[in-house]
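re the bet — no i am not wrong, look at it urself. input seq straight from the record:
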Amino acid sequence: MFNLQVISQLQPEFGIRLYEVKVESQRQRLNETRQQLSDIVRDVIKWKYSYECVSLVASSNDVIFLDLFASAYEFDRQLFWRLRPFIVTGVPLQQLRGLLLKHWVLFASGSMVLRVPEEREKGGRLIEIYTHLPYGPEEGGRDVRVATWSQHRGILTTLEREKYRIRQPTDGQWGSLNDDGTWTGLVGQVFRHEADFAVGPHDVTEVRSKAIDYTANLIFDARKFIVAQNRAKVNPWGFLFPLSPKVYLGILLALCLMAVMTIAVGKRYIQLSLGTYAYAVTFHTYRLLLQQGLTMNLSRISERLLVGSWLVATMIICWSYSSNLISLLAVRYAPRPIQTIRDLLNHKTLIVIFPRRTSLSDYLFSVESGQLKEVADLSKMGRYIDLPFWEFPQGMETYVSKGTHIMATDTIDARTMIANYFSETGRCQFYIAREAFVHYVLAMVAQKGSPLVAAMNKRIRAVFEAGLYQYWLNKNVPNSTSCDHMPSTFTVREPLSLANIWGLFVLLLSGLLLSLMIFCSEIISAKLRPYL
């Protein structure tokens, strides 16, 4: 008959609570025993929330009881990781190995068996501590003796260094959920128990968290665009750029106004007609603008004041034009027009590249409004393509370098690809856009409920607190910071070539042709005047 009894109970700040269980071999009684053992485990788990340290020890030489206890402990997989039982028994080693193999889920949490043999050796009784390691190169894991204790030798550890194997997904993907509920990539391998954990690191998403467990956060990063840096060249029509079009229009209006004011307040000689005088004044005003000197006879004070003010204005305009022109020729500017999502959307032809079958692409096409929705709609316009992640470095050199495409990826991966390109070519041909359109967290993944998560978390926090992760990241990527602060202006110290100023000669030739046409028309009109 089954009997569950609390033998003694101490509930001060810390104490011991004992349970006694009697097991009978009838099948119906065994089911009742299993249920009662499950209640005991849940009761002990409640103590786990009230006390800082709670240990559960099961002691029996009955294999049936140990099997029932392990089954009850594994009944609720969401709770058994919070408590690691310790089993004390004296069953033969062969039966113990069968128990370890059958209930590997229990021992995967770090539970151990302390075997106390009934017979004593010459040097005293040798107590052995066993556990089962489900994670290893052997199929199904293996049970190992981790330590021994004797009265004369004390505790001796016997656990050897474990080996591991690396497996890569055949599809080369990080992992996304298919319509049929299966997973691809690294996440799929962990979900199907083909791998114990995946280093990644992987995006922390709600969908993935239902299939696997995440470790402590490794990286807080953002996704940005990689854009080709425009080459700094001298525009052959750059001599027109020192002044804006509005300034040119203002100078033309001021020139006309100056000519009219001079005609109004000036003294016209009797022998000159009004048309001839107006032409002479306008021509001399234009001469002053071009710093050609003054040949007008200014007899009135009002004329001198008017022309003097115009002379000061033209000097300032010419000096400003000259200094700006020298700057444009000596300092070249490489514009970076794409800095935000809106810049991409406003562009008419630019094509965006996204990684294929990742959490980023899944999130992009799940957004129902906003700028990211407009980015997703670019696929309907033929301005969206996706590439496998391993083809991104080649895609950056093939597509992005031409200036017709931009690439969306993690900031860390973007800096790595740009650094590798700089190491190969010595050029900073790409830049990272200023705006981040998605922020995310990266972590490693393990099987659901895996005890490896707690072990890795402890080491991850230690590495981050020491600042080693960022140091290793920068150390393992050569030239990782070479293109971080790339200037947008460059000082050029080389002689000007014809390719830089051919627009000036085009303007000169156009002026010569225009003057030749006017000269020919004057000759023709002079010959035809007697007949008119």
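see?? DSSP finds 17 helices and 18 strands in the chain. told u. also The CA atoms of residues 4 and 21 lie 5 Å apart. so pay up
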